[in-house]
Amino acid sequence: PTEGFPHLIASETLADRLFAVLEQATPKTTEQMIDQFNQISRFHFMVAEHLTRHGEPRETGVTFSTSSSVSQTSTPGTSHRHFQKGRDALKSAVRVVASDPDISVRDQAEQIAQLGDWFLMFNQRSSAIKSYATASEILLSEENGLALEKELFGVPAIIELSSTENQKIPENGDSIKIKMTVSRTGVASQFESVNNQITLSNKDKNHLRRHFRGKRFRPVIVEGEPQTVEYIVNFTLPPNEITDSKESDAEDTPT
């Protein structure tokens, strides 16, 4: 992984130059400017994620991790720098939508919510909640504000900041409905099967914990306040990991 640093550094230089140009340029369209700022933020998340997973030669600074666990070989100072650059790009996108009277309230709120997503993925929970509250406030200023808020924040949504991020799901397994609790800061826990005939083993639950450990959900927001909710998803467990409760009971019955 460390062999890729020269390419990352070269890409970072290009991204910094593009950001400087965008900050001073008069764009052809607002949508193009927003898209370019969002692309810059995605790039910096990709680099920060790489540093979190693989580290780099030196060890200095303060950690801003993109997950709940931090590699001992990562360079926190550099990761922090990418957190700041991605945040600044998203703030610039927010300024662009705020200055364009033709942008809908829904699109303004979505862009602010994306800034909240960024904060949440870097474990800046207080800043994330403030961003979501601001987005909600904008929506609630409209006559149909509650409906707009529900449209944007009505169900938990997995945050995906990197365009190259792939969610690997085991193939040839059995898809079942999983109920989980999603906290007000977007953390998934307390996994259960919706089907009473299916019991999740400890192995199943550990698999689910590993899958969702580095992920965050955009939380449900009601009248500006984040909520802890139960959420149901279809999930594919690896083959032979799903246990029928009757079979499980039979196996556990003393002979």
For this entry, give a set of tags.
single chain, 255 residues, alpha+beta, two-stranded antiparallel sheet, 9 strands, globular
How would you sum up this structure in a few lines?
The chain has eight helices and nine strands. The chain is α+β, with helices and mostly antiparallel strands.
> In angstroms, what separates the terminal alpha carbons?
54 Å
List low-pLDDT spans. 59-64, 68-76, 164-172, 245-255
Please describe the biggest sheet, giving its number of strands, its sense, and whether it closes into a barrel. Answer: 3 strands, antiparallel
Structural class: alpha+beta
* Main sheet: strand order: 3-2-8
The helical percent reads 40-55%
Q: What is the number of helical segments per DSSP (H or I, 4+ residues)? A: 8
Mean pLDDT: 78
SSE string, helices as H and strands as E: HHHHHHEEEEHEEEEEH
Using the CA coordinates, give the radius of gyration. Answer: 21 Å
Tell how many strands the DSSP assignment holds.
9
What features would you describe in this structure?
There is one protein chain. The chain has helices spanning 5-24, 30-54, 76-99, 105-121, 125-140, 145-153, 202-213, 245-252; strands at residues 157-158, 174-182, 188-193, 198-199, 217-218, 220-222, 225-227, 229-237, 243-244. The protein is 51% helix and 15% strand. The chain has 255 residues and is of the alpha+beta class. The longest helix is centred in the first third of the chain and has 25 residues, at 30-54. A hairpin with a 2-residue loop joins strand 6 (220-222) and strand 7. The model is unreliable at 59-64, 68-76, 164-172 and 245-255 (pLDDT under 50). The protein has a 3-stranded antiparallel β-sheet with strand order 3-2-8, covered by helices on one side. Strands 1-5 form a two-stranded antiparallel ribbon.
